[in-house]
Structures
1.
Amino acid sequence: MAVERIDVTIAMAPGGTLTLSYSASGTISGVRLPDAAAPERTDGLWQHSCFEAFLRGGEDYAEYNFSPSTQWAAYRFDGYRAGMRDADIAGPEIETTIAPERFDLRVAIDLPAGATRLGLAAVIEESPGRKSYWALAHPPGAPDFHHIDCFALDLAAAMHP
């Protein structure tokens, strides 16, 4: 496996801006990273190397996809995989850094109103086309980042230890 570890640092600024700093460590030359592209909303990013965040309050939740290309996507859901629609947000600024043994992606987003739980995830596509799925928590069975078990981080506890 090309990526051996993924770490994420989170920070909350006054006013509700959530900064996520993802760091994938391993043999980065073995990871399929998309070419740099215009930082625009793009669907289907999860089909390739992509870093993700899921934020929920009650039944509804938001999904954010951040590509190493700097493309992004944001969706709102009314419930588990139900009522999917584009989230009305300004395009986030995505910063990336690549080194032989590490790939970093940093992004800041506005925290959705009422969000109390966070799920962090990544899809890593390796050069031979194999994919690995990373998350703070996985439900039993196939990877499913939308599953309630994946919203493993209590934001209040994380921000005020």
2.
Amino acid sequence: MTLPQRDASADAARSGAVAAQESLQDARAVARVLQGDAEAYGELVSRYMRPAFSIAYRIVEQREDAEDVVQDAFMRALERLDTLQRGRPFRPWFFRIVVNHALNLRRGRAVRRTEAVPEEAASTLPTPEVHAERAAVRGALTVALDALPDTQRTVMILAELEGLKSAEIATIMELSPGTVRWHLHQARRALRQSLQALVEDT
């Protein structure tokens, strides 16, 4: 018996419809903010607080720094909201502000690196041996990511760790989609080379 195959085009259509609906909700919230409705900005904050923190945290690698980045980014976005071009989606525009703030902090501050992952994320490891093995993998991945140029590292974070599409990354990074794909290819190749020894050992 042949199992029915998942319809990729249908999934893509549903994903696109959801994205379009979210973009419409954002546009309405932005319009309300510009009309003086302060509560509408709270809707945007609630919607994008978690993904903004995730992006910032992966770039700066420190919880307090990531919190500062997100707070500053929301303040900056509110101050510049009237510069958002009509019809331009809020999400990539705002994520661009988050990425810029995070990269500026990373470049301008000696970032304290005590853990690459929040403490609670490691609390569910079943044994000390597994904990140590996964910690070694995380540490190796962090070192390999840190060795990448900023642009490649950021593209890799947005694509592989945050799941953003090339077109949206292009908007966020102000690059062409082809340039994004090139940076992603280069980053993947560099990571494979950096992690090859670890993979062979395990």
3.
Amino acid sequence: MKIKVYNQDGKEISQTTLPKEIFGIKANPDLVWQVVVSQMANKRKPIAHTKDRSEVSGGGRKPWPQKGLGRARHGSIRSPLWRHGGVTFGPRKERIFKKKIPKKMKRKALFMVLSQKANDGELILVDEFKITKPKTKVFYKILKNFPLKKLSTLIGLPKLDKNLILATRNIPKVKTILAKDLNCLDLLSFKYLILPLTSIKVIKETFLK
């Protein structure tokens, strides 16, 4: 597949052929769904936590004698039957949400999403970004040079670029990520993917070992 290459002024300067083993993979929505669900599950943190009767303070003594008063039998005021007592079957922070997915499945799902981006015209290649100062206004103008119908954009950097990261972090719906850290969840969270040419080399070296 051939794709246009732009400079940061938005002018087409050349064309390049995308590697078939990364950008020519047939889609399998079920596999992509599995990988995305596992990513979202692995990011979850169990916050909700209720105390059972062993964790609630107090209730060390029997509230009244077992027999003789005509009342129901109780052993502790921290029973789930009592107000301010423990909670039965409530949410616990010990719950584990993590799901394991084999590396080969993750890699193949990533290639499927990248292939779909390329097929749908949502992949934009740039020769390189040159930003001398971390100015949001400057980079916002650069983004406007590209054929983007909406600003929802993920930028895959070949290496750490502090100026570019600082320039983009205040732009809504724009995120930077290192090319070696690309994943299905981030790719599907944004409509467009912008890659400098050297990022494709990084993707090949990282995921096609």
